[in-house]
Amino acid sequence: MEITRESLRVFNAARAANRHLSLIGLALFATLLLAACATRGDDYPTSAGSPAFLPGKVVTQQGREAADLYLPIFIIAVVVFVLIEGILLFVALRFRRKRGDDTLPGQRHGNNVLELLWTGIPAVIVGVLFVVSTGVLLKVDAIAPNPAVTVDVTGFQWQWTFDYKDQGLSFTGAGKDGPEMVVPVDETIHIRLHSVDVIHSFYVPQFFRKLDVVPGRINEFQVNVEQEGTFGGQCAEFCGLAHADMYFTVRAVDRATFDQWVTDEQLKAAATPQPAPSGGPTAAKLQVSAVNKLAFEQATLRAPADVPLTIEFQNLDPVNPHNVSIKAGQPDGKDWIGLPIAKAGQVAVYQAPALPAGEYGYYCSVHPNMTGTLTVQ
Amino acid sequence: MASTPLPPAQSYRRAAVYDWITTVDHKKIGIMYVVSSFVFFLIGGLLALVIRTELAAPGLQFVSEATYNSIFGLHAINMIFLFVMPMLTGLGNYIVPLQVGAADMAFPRVNALSFWVFITGGLLIESSFLFGGAPVGWTMYAPLSTQAPETGVNLLVLGLIMTGISSILGAINFLVTLFRLRAPGMGLLRMPMFCWTQLVTSVLLLFSIPVVTAGLIMIFIDRNYGGGFFEPSLGGNPILWQHVFWFFGHPEVYILILPAFGIVSEIIPVFSRKPLFGYRAFVIATASIGALGFTVWAHHMFTTGAVYLPFFSFFTFLIAVPTGIKFFNWLATMWGGKLTFDTPMLYACGFIALFLIGGLDGAFLAVVPFDFMVQDTYWVVSHIHYVLVAGSLFAILAALFYWFPKMSGRKLDERLGKAQFWLLFVGTNVTFFPQHMLGLDGMIRRIADYSANAGWTELNFTSSVGAFMIAGAVLMFMWNVFATMRGPADAGDDPWDANTLEWATTSPPPVYNFDHLPPVRSERPLFDLKHRDDGHAPVAAISLSVTEGPVQ
Fold first, then answer.
1. Which domains does chain B have, with CATH numbers?
2. Has B531 been annotated as catalytic?
3. Spatial distance between the Cα atoms of B319 and B323, rounded to a whole number of angstroms
4. Is A233 helix (H, G, I), strand (E, B) or coil?
5. Among A189, B186, B272, B344, which residue has the least CB neighbours within 10 Å?
6. A296: number of CA atoms within 13 Å, CB side?
7. A364: pLDDT confidence band, cut at 50, 70 and 90?
8. In this predicted complex, what is the ipTM?
């Protein structure tokens, strides 16, 4: 244990040095950074710290068990690496053929004792590693009988839905940030994974694990989050066009905050069943529809300028959820996202803010490939 | 050395192109494999540069997500199915009959057929670019692959079925050649190690390719006729495809690396002037890697939640042991030798130095709870590239430098070759080492973009710089080949003072290879011939030898 802690200190120093290097690099590539215009997952990137030789911050009890395995294996790997590269370098320097030396070296064909040794020792090492890692695996994959909170996660192209069935809450992500999962700390969270289309993977780097979201089966795992905070997550199994944009976040809070959050969300859900299709007499009305996830039925729309818009969206697709979102459609220049997302076969009515004259792009925030042009004049 | 007088020139001349297209000579077919797979390598390399250029900075600057999603899969398909596999087949085609002292492959016409089937498959795969691409990754996971509307995916599947048929035909041909056409005196345990690895590889191909071919046909039926093999809405099981794919896909890893082990095991003894240390242990290790290769496939599926984890973890750990044996045997071969570092030897040593990293990564990945973290991240991307670039590509370059004099009669330029080695050595590490750290930090693979706030920008930029260094090394190699081919064919029959039979004939060899064969009393017949007075051939081997060919 002490040895581990001491080595950790050494490696943390190495990580710090690494970070300094990163800073130099940052300065070097500042121009590039400025040129880049990334907009996604920025608030809570799916990063576990800064990239280094050791795992970054791990916030769950199960993840910590797994991450603790890393250092001993890393040390074994470094020892083997140094040994082999050392022998290779030594041999390459020591046994060079001298110029003009045409004699043959000793022709040794083998040595049974040596060969048994270098078969046996690695076999013992990997045997021990197998026993230790399987022990940890059983802990990481353990399922406790009475979890405090159960969240049903549904992955679909290209968003997530988090259902709290016991609390009667449901959140579907819209836009690049995706939905937020709120969980209490230090309690067992049970996560069940469902897919409605292709294979996805539920991955939070700071949980130090992922689990695939497979259509036709329900995968389950449990975590006990040990720290408060917000942690980025992302789909880790390639799932088609907007795979790179399938973000979500997990926010861990204390029990009281969690209970308050549940109450607030339940009230909110009860207060706004569906936005009323009023819009007032001054609002302009637009109609949009879609029958599949390839495109909207309307490639272009027209609307008057400086008038609030009522968008009636008919989702005629029998399988996929969709919505209508407008690029730079908010007064502050951010995208306006149509909420709630219309489930398969449903109609949603959105109230969009008034837009100054110009050309706007609209898209489905679930399927960024579904796009159209909105001309406001 | 044996010099074979060619028969008098034929009274009629056919066009050279017609001659190459209709040839059944294993050497010409081998060269066609090598050249065409190198062209596919250039295509795959260009795709890799597109990937690294896009990832050099966060944001989408160069290609769209839709384009990117086709490119990473086709990069892998090009490199695995159209470069490394046919390149190793091509080298085997040229070298194996020569090393066993045969006049040709066992079935020369089948040999030509498998080459042209491979070319057809390759063209089908490349044509998917023109029909919407194939945004399904090289693993083609169902139901994404069964639902993708692009016609390009159909072409990809058909092309892979064709290259699979080519591989099956080639594997049968190699096996019959190795079992039936060995020179008198060459028992199985006197076969050169490259032939042994080709033998085990052929067995792996024969058992694994039919499985994935069946799976690909099911994908094709699912896509086009609603088959419901892997489509859950029709009662199919998407996990079944992963089992089928990886039951092929893991032996495939050894198909890509065992001949590379063979190449390194040919080169190191020659440039150390010693026999391969522990030849029998090496044969046993190769065979057991082949056998264990069929027991570990589901370690690619640890995160599906649908496999029995300890079983596959255990065998994944176990397969590290025979791989480790090879490292020690190579080092022991060099120990006490008289080493010269010509370019083939440099590449062989580079292989040992860097493949080691890929191998150690493999031991990490056998730890299931750690695999949960890094599966589908850049950590795994780094691992496969340390295996396939530092492993297969380095060995292929070692082989090309080593056997180029045999194939063309010319030695590639050594100074250019060494400079290229060091550029590639540095470039490989600059490209792929940072990806370990990115993956451990949570950067997933198969994404066209990442957050600027994740702290991944500098390492990705570094990795992209490395990719262009690798591209520079490839250009140097092409220039080297071009310049060398303009020079005179003055390499001689045996420029490396080598051990095996391919060096006992002219460079390049005549149509049926040999008119005299030296006697085969050990795995180093040419060494025995050159040093018979020194008594270095194993005594037991000589006394047991019953057949003896004519001696010059």
1. 19-515 (1.20.210.10)
2. no
3. 7
4. strand
5. A189
6. 25
7. confident
8. 0.89
